[in-house]
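Pilot study result, target chain (271 residues):
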Amino acid sequence: MGNLWRRRRRAAEATVILAVALLAFAALRHLADEVHIRDIRSAFHEIGWVHLWASLGFTMLSYFLLTLYDVMALRVIHRPLPYRTAALASLTSYTLSHNLGFGLLTGGSARYRVYMAAGISPPDILRVIATTGIAFWSGVFVTAGVALLFHPASFALGPFVVSPDIQRYLGGGILAVFAVILLFLRRGDGGSVTLLRWTLPRPSAGQALAQTIIAALDLAAASAAMLALVPGAGVTQLPLLFLGYALAMVAGLISHVPGGIGVFEAVIVAV
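Predicted structure:
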């Protein structure tokens, strides 16, 4: 009975993922109706070598920052490893999870293989996964808060138009919540916290801040790599592009479509 349930659940998950992918491709096709191949060729010709190298540089910076997620997580759980081991676990994990979907299964399996060989126990591996996940989402929210706070104009998201005042309130609120969390951690450095019956070492305020800064810089570098390839775009467009990038990335991760294909592009074009 259990095997039958698992098979049906996998079939249902595969069906949902396929439906999301088809809807995303349909939305992307509708959004790209006015885009012609000659426009794409013209856009490529407008991208100079300076912009290409800048995009490559930001991409390399983003990949380097990815390796620091696990470095910091291992310190938080008091099981530090050599940088090479942590970097290998981090890069393989994020590469597989972002491109194949089902991050806990694909990326978690990569971390399990690397860390088991390094002598890390399964419970500690799960703590690393949870800690890096919290760091990633902290970076998403904090960077989104900064982008909302400094974006100078209204932006439209489908039928909704978000005014600068609302953006500033939202951005300030997000950053205020983060500041309160840091104060809470500073008052009780050390110890542990229980989430869903899992006990996690509580990071110090400095560790939490460092993890969030690493994640924020990673996301900002990835957004900048994309911005460098947009002809005529300047630094003032980075906050809006980051908001679109973060929303597209989250939609791609939640959908579990491999590589976010169709989902990511549809959200980026829409924004």
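One observation from the pilot: The chain has ten helices and four strands. A full batch analysis is planned for the follow-on phase.
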